[in-house]
Amino acid sequence: MDDFEQVKEKLNLLEKNFEKLDNKSNLLVDNCISLLSIDTDELGLYYIMTDRLLFIFSAKSLSTNPDFMHDFLFNYLRKRSRWSFGKLNSSCFLYREHYKSFIQDNVVLYKYLARGGLINKSTVSKDSKTNELYIESQYLGKENYLPEDNNVVYADQPKRKVLKGITVNKYLANKSAMMRRLIFRNVFDYLFNTYPSESGDKSKVSGVLLDAHMDNIIVNDDGFHFIDKDVICSSDLSKSQILYRNFKDSPNYRYFLDYYGLTDESEEYLKSYPLDHRDTEQMKQLRVTNAALLKKYFSENGLTPRERYNVKLNIAEKDFPKKLLNNFDAVWYEKQYHPDYSKDCPNISGCVPLYHYLQIGWKKGYNPSPDFDGNAYLEEHADAKKSGVNPLWHYAMSEVTKDI
Questions:
Q1: What is the DSSP letter of 139?
Q2: pLDDT value at residue 226
Q3: For the chain, which residues score pLDDT lower than 50?
Q4: For the segment 204-252, what is each residue's pLDDT rounded down to a tens digit?
Q5: Which region holds residue 187: left if phi is over 0, alpha if psi is between -120 and 50, else beta?
Q6: pTM for the full model?
Q7: Which is it for strands 53-58 and 45-49: parallel, antiparallel or unpaired?
Q8: Please, where are the H alpha helices in 227-373?
Q9: Which H/E stretch holds residue 390?
Q10: 20 to 30 A Cα–Cα from 94, which one of 221, 268, 340, 385?
Q11: In terms of Cα–Cα distance, which of 277, 274, 272, 269 is closest to 151?
């Protein structure tokens, strides 16, 4: 058994035990770093994947930057219990697309995040002279998006130095309630003073802070730093909304309203906060327009044997193409394939008949309705059969493309 197979076997055993453990992602990252680092092939590329996140990194990245890799991965994975990992085959397009940059450009890690029909691509690289790490980010598919009246701007971020420090959330661990409140006061004093309202309104701040929360702010010897500005509102934001986004129903929200002399805008937040109201017709259309791009980076086809739902990708059921929904009969499907459907469902998070069909059912030869024969469709469409795509999804997306 070669090194990678041993690592894979160990991680599979770890994964089986994760259901019984707390702090699962911390254990995941620690063991990935320690176990995968035994790979002596510097061109060996690995991935870690969740429903909306894809990380690509090399064995050398893990062995030479263990602290950064742990902190960066853990920050994103700590709240996610479902993940998959693996080593990219040299014939895989993801390998071919990325491997040269790990040598020529000293890349340490790529992060792809599916966000509202777009993909945020972050690239971490190392300066060969100073050994300092730098990060830059860009949005893929942005050319298909035009901001509407919600004023949300998806902004590329130029290369900037990766600052050493810890997130405010981590800094707050084990602090007393009084100390936590004092730290929060310092954080918001910093934010509100650093990013004032362009209009001069003392109750508002710059739209740069649209996505400001305690995992986007780090603490080090130089103070606080807001490091994630890739989603920006082009108009000013209420300080009350920023506070509510961070505290919601916590008593701290009321405390800070009094501290800053603000009025309660929690109801207004629920109605108008831009990031929580992106379910527009334009955004739905963007998801369809960028469907091939999303699938390119987040499909599990050829990447991992885990059977997971490939198509959902930030799309609510009501956002699926009408031609797909019109050809799916949930009541018929559930009755037709009982008890298999009932047996499979406990293993699927948020399982409903449509998701079961898209994830598992079609692979078993199940049909979505009495009027659509998926097996016959695949026989008639060699390209769909060869690519291993769900027949109803292929039919629906083909029709959507024609409509566009």
A1: E
A2: 94
A3: 1-4, 7, 11, 14-28, 37-40, 300-315, 347-350, 400-404
A4: 999 999 999 998 999 988 899 999 888 888 889 999 999 999 998 899 9
A5: alpha
A6: 0.66
A7: antiparallel
A8: 239-247, 251-260, 266-272, 281-289, 291-298, 322-325, 330-336, 340-344, 353-359
A9: none
A10: 385
A11: 274
- The pLDDT, as a whole number, for residue 344 is 66
Quick one: which of 200, 222, 198, 220 has its CA closest to 209? 198
Sole residue written with tokens 């909304």: 241
Structure tokens at 38: 């035994």
| pLDDT for res 190 | 95
Q: Which pLDDT score, from 0 to 100, does residue 204 have?
A: 95
Backbone CA torsion sign across 30, 227, 265, 259 = positive
The answer to whether residues 18 and 24 touch, using CB atoms and an 8 Å cutoff, is yes
What's the CA gap between 344 and 353, in Å, rounded? 11
Token pair listed for 240? 């009350």
Q: Tell me the three state secondary structure of residue 233.
A: strand
DSSP 3-state assignment of 68? helix
Q: Rounded to the nearest 5°, which phi and psi values hold at 349? A: -70, 125
Domain ranges (residues) in the chain:
3-150, 168-276, 281-403
Amino acid present at 252:
N
Do residues 119 and 112 lie in contact, with contact meaning Cβ atoms separated by under 8 Å?
yes
Two tokens, residue 329 = 């009969």
Backbone Cα Rg of the chain: 23
**Which of 66, 61, 71, 74 lies closest to 24 in space, CA to CA?**
74
